[in-house]
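Review session, final week

We close the course with one last complete record, chosen because it touches almost every idea we covered. It is Glutathione S-transferase, a protein from Bradyrhizobium jicamae with 217 residues. Go through it on your own first, then we will talk.
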Amino acid sequence: MYKLYSMQRSGNSYKVRLALALLNAPYEAIEVDILRGESRTPDFLEKNPSGQVPLLEVADGRYLAESNAILWYVCGGTSLAPESRVERAEALQWMFFEQHALEPNIGAAYFWLSLVKGGRDLQTHALEDWMERGYAALQVMENHLKTRAYFAAGQLTVADIALYGYTHVADRCDYDLATFPAIRAWLRRVEQTPGFVTMDWRPLTVVDDQAGIVAGA
């Protein structure tokens, strides 16, 4: 069984939990609150020197970091991973786009405006850039979805899961999706997928990382 270190309110962590839920794959969830420094303890840094979540233990003592790498691993060989070479590349193309165009802008805005107390005041200098670049990324997605139901292979794939993670919380951090009807329709399609779970959903087995807190005290 997988062991997943994640933060409930993290979009990157949610992407992995959503994929595992859609695949009905069992796993043990370990809650790591990065806002409390739980990913910076010596114990956690030994597992992942970058000090980030999500982190997936795929075998005893063997860990995978980076949300999209984890997605590709857990979805490989399933209906969420395209079979043909070109469709796999197209899915990866959108996953790379998510990490360089969507997550650094909408993801950053969500973190500072929705999760960090006083974050808006701390990041006033960055907001304009986040808005401009985030809207540009949304427009690229909107244009693609005007003639397609999903991002690759004509069906729900790992690419949609990667992009859904932060797009669905864009309205919580100042982005207005009113002018993106194709994106809104796509969000509804993803949410109607059998096995879909929301960001707030918790698996039956959740462990708080209390040991990590003590180690970092």
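Two points worth writing down before the exam:
Confidence is low (pLDDT under 50) at residues 210-217.
The domain at 85-192 is CATH 1.20.1050.10 (Glutathione S-transferase Yfyf (Class Pi); Chain A, domain 2).
Good luck, everyone.
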